Here is the input.
Amino acid sequence: MIRVLLVDDQHLVRAGLRMLCESSADLEVVGEAAEGGEAVRLVERLAPDVVLMDLRMPGVDGITATARILASRPATRVLVLTTFDDDEHLYPALDAGAQGFLGKDAPPEELLDAIRRTAAGESPFSGPVLRRLVDAARAAHRAEPAAPPRQGLPGLTDRERDVLALVGEGLSNAEVAARLHVAVSTVKTHVAALLDKTGAANRVRLAVLAIRDPR
Here is the structure.
């Protein structure tokens, strides 16, 4: 059973998330918080596996709350639920230790899958969020002074490099699988291997590596 804490300042949003989570037999909502300070206290008391974290809230915001939660309970996984105009907060939240990012307009099954993947230690990102982050990374890379050519990332198989390049385009696992004509489970295996071999903390960092070290 995956224990979930809901953090959002809108009661209707929390109610909808609770109904969705409780429709799945493997998820249990153990608490709700309307702002970050309350979330930090509830994490200490309830020890959830996954925290669904809003970013913009009165009082303690989601970024600060994420940092405080992970400082005291590093085993907790934080999955950010964000709107697409929150891009300026995504990198700070990533630096604070958030495990993944999902748009609030994500389909219900995508959200449930993201919670499970977050609990399993993966880093789920909705396609639009990932693409916006990748676009920002590309823009930053173009603005950097020209650097000497790199030798590329060592130790990757040809197929892993294919997957890495498509992650760098902002594609989801399903989209990568369709492009390469393989199963989604195969892509997940390659992404896990890439995270391990490169030391990247999450999918966004992999995308940045793909941009900086194109094959």
Remarks:
- The mean pLDDT is 87.
- The two ends are 42 Å apart (CA to CA).
- The longest strand covers residues 27-33.
- The beta strands are 2-7, 27-33, 50-54, 77-82, 100-103.
